[in-house]
Amino acid sequence: MTGTALVAARPAILLVDDDPFMLDLQSGMLRGLGYADVHASGDARAALATLLSGESRPDVIVCDLNMPGMDGVQFLQALNASPFSGSIILLSGEGARILHTVQKLLRGGRLTVLGALEKPGRPQAIRALIDCWVPPGVVQAPARAAPSITEAAVLEAARTPQWLLHFQPKVELVTGAVAGVEALVRWNHPQHGLLYPDAFIGIAEECGAIDSLTEWVLVHSVAQFARWSAAGLHLPVAINVSMDNLGTPDFASRVAAIAHAAGVAPQDITLEITESRAMSPLPAPLECLVRLRLLRFNLAIDDFGTGHSSLAQLRDVPFSELKIDRGFVHGARRNQIIRPMLEGSIGLASRLGMVSVAEGVETLEDFELLREIECDLAQGYFIGRPMEVEKLPAWVSEWQRRRAELFGP
Ligand code: C2E
Ligand code: CA
Ligand code: CA
User: Cα of 227 to ligand 3 centre, how many Å?
Assistant: First the structure.
């Protein structure tokens, strides 16, 4: 801490809404919450003019969407193109889907969007969003700059190899029992230290290092499974397989040989298939997936609901597990758009005889919702972060304690 005490700064707020009743209601409410500097404008075009002239400099603008003349989307577009440096809260009666879409639209731009609320907006909810406002000059932790990674470095890392594994637990939602772990690769880079897969998997796929990377992960994951088994811990492992691996001749046989050599049953191994690009039109990946399934490996469709992890894939590939992307999981209890999608995906998995797994379970609220809507397995920070192998036994004991709390004795 520095010597200057942080006094919670109160932002200047501008309300933009064509409905005079709404403006009165909101201004009164905000003043009641202790925000003294509140202005209101009934016309977006007029509000824009005063902002551009510098006559008014609000820190936070609470903006309606449906307004005659200049609507909220046009107003925000104009703000985005202006030097305005404050933050935005959307408040509209147009329904959650429209709010969601407008928020997405703004995410790529330079405006800071604190959040969106449906009218009239409960005082506590508005306050919670306003509290996210960061006064100018307050330095936020800089995002970790991704080091630039070259193909040559990735190829070298694959040769040496410089990989290591972290494991993230999954638990059963009916009983709380530990269901297994997912192996997540990291790169112990000689200069940059520990690197996360998003920084190098794409490059590994492009330069052809992905085959040796996947093989390394597979060999080390099954060896780890065998060590845990010997120690009396049954922890089935899931590994991530890139679509590119599936085009490699005899990938399925290679996987089977690795498992067999380690004395590990295919039923204890799950292959999570992620797709960064559209599935190749060649039949090779499909053939490989069918063979893996015939060999009794579990197959998961990863990140279901995003990118190319679609219904068409589900129809064509004999997946045994449906792993719902975290974008449909965290916060679903309070989100009227993603919650039906989450429930629908779980229902779909169940009707297709597949195991449903929710990833990105970050809070007790997420966890409890998943129990209520009968998802099979859960994975996420609420349960446990990806961790080094040495930390797993302690996590297992700690989870048994938390499990008794969450599920009763
Ligand atoms: P994924 O398969 O979706 O793996 C889960 C990712 O979500 C992990 O990131 C994990 O740390 C993160 N995560 C787990 N729980 C939570 C949570 O509660 N909230 C949030 N916000 N995030 C959570 P990580 O380790 O950075 O991995 C990123 C992606 O890289 C993985 O996404 C996977 O697609 C890929 N990947 C990881 N290991 C391998 C590998 O060995 N081979 C291949 N081909 N891809 C890998
Ligand atoms: Ca995965
Ligand atoms: Ca995912």
Answer: 27
pLDDT in tens, 44-90: 999 999 999 989 899 999 999 999 999 999 999 999 999 998 999 99
State the closest ligand 1 atom to the C-alpha of 379, by its place in the atom list counted from 1: 15
DSSP string, 312-334: HHHHHS--SEEEE-GGGTTTGGG
Residues with a beta carbon under 5 angstroms from ion ligand 3: 303
Q: What percent of the chain has pLDDT over 90?
A: 74
**Which one of 240, 243, 270, 275 would you pick to mutate in the ligand 1 pocket, going by the greatest count of ligand atoms within 8 A of its CB?**
240
Mean pLDDT lowest for which of 84-98, 290-304, 384-398?
84-98
Contacts of 110 (CB under 8 A, 6+ apart): 80
CB 367, CB 378: distance < 8 Å = yes
Question: Which regions of the chain carry the CATH code 3.20.20.450?
Answer: 151-407
Q: Which residues line ligand 1 (CB under 6 A)?
A: 168, 184-185, 196-198, 201, 214, 217, 240, 242, 272, 274, 302-303, 326, 359-362, 380-381, 386
Highest CATH level, class, for 9-130: alpha beta
Indicate the burial class of 148 (C-beta count within 10 angstroms; 0-12, 13-18, 19 or more).
Answer: exposed
Atom 43 (ligand 1): residue with closest C-alpha?
240
Mean pLDDT of 110-128: 89
**pLDDT mean across residues, the chain:** 91
- Which class is 151-407 in CATH? alpha beta
Ligand at minimal distance from the CA of 306 is 3
Ligand nearest to the CA of 305: 3
169: left (phi over 0), alpha (psi -120 to 50) or beta: beta
Tokens representing 182 are: 């997912």
Q: What's the pLDDT at 249? A: 84
